[in-house]
Amino acid sequence: MMTTTNTAETVLWAGKPSQALALRAYTLRGGAFGLLFELANYYRFLHPQLWLLLAVPIAAAVWTFIKVRHISYEITTQRVRCWSGVFNRTLEEVEFYRARETHLYMPLVDRMFGVGNAIVAYADSTGSHHLMLAAIRDADDVRNLMRSAIESVRTQKGVRAVEASW
Fold first, then answer.
1. Quick one: the chain helix, strand, coil %, rounded to 5?
2. What topology does CATH give the domain 3-17+71-157?
3. pLDDT, tens only, 33-73
4. pTM for the complete prediction?
């Protein structure tokens, strides 16, 4: 998907994370639902209102789904952006000339779902940081795309990485 955001910047890739990102949360909420279901069933004559507690893990799972659904990533020729948040939106942005390196992290569970994590490490005045594009499809291709864009921007701006050990 190649769209233009302004004259000097082109969107190279845009995407959203897989719901596999929240697999642990869904598993915990499913376990809580099962436990509450058994408790409500066992004590159904003493406390009929226990069935209302089943709404708690269901609501938590729905909220988790909505939170993951409201994460989006965008890689342009100049930077990578990550938007997150349902009501209060947050934008994390890394200019490619600040990037030091990229990483690929694909744990077993992510590989089972065909997703991975592309990470860009960068440095600014407050220290070293990283931005992770979590649970994305074709993570290695996305990482290579970022790496190429980083090299292009660094060449264009004449930026070189300097390693210093004190």
1. 45, 35, 20
2. PH-domain like (2.30.29)
3. 999 999 888 888 777 788 888 999 999 999 999 999 999 99
4. 0.85
